[in-house]
Design a protein that fits this description.
The strands form three sheets. The chain has a four-stranded antiparallel β-sheet with strand order 2-5-1-6, with helices on one face. The protein has a two-stranded antiparallel ribbon with strand order 3-4. Strands 7-8 form a two-stranded antiparallel sheet. The N and C termini lie close together (about 10 Å). The relative contact order is 0.31. It is of the alpha+beta class and about 110 residues long. It contains two helices and eight strands; from the N terminus they run βαββββαβββ. It has one domain: Alpha-Beta Plaits. It is elongated and about 55 Å long.
Amino acid sequence: MKMIVATVRPEKIFDVTKGLAENGYYASTRWGVSGRGRQKGIQVGDMIYEEMSKNLLMIVVEDVEKDQVVQIIMDYARSGANGNSGDGKIFIVPVEESYTISAHKKDDSL
């Protein structure tokens, strides 16, 4: 299993989750975060914003589904035809085990 952790622009999170659902990936966790990447924030007039609002999306999939899910996220999270700085980042993390709390047992698969 792989955990896909993606940061995306807040205005793109609905598009991303809709795109995932349309392709059969309904289960995810998301929350609002703030931070900055290589762009080091932005300057608007005299004001410098060093941290930007983002949404963090976490989804766990079988290994063979990883590439498809990454592609969906990239397609739906990209702003503009060529993308823009600050569109987000995707990290892939191996998942060794998972447990369902209500069943009080280790999962055989997702």
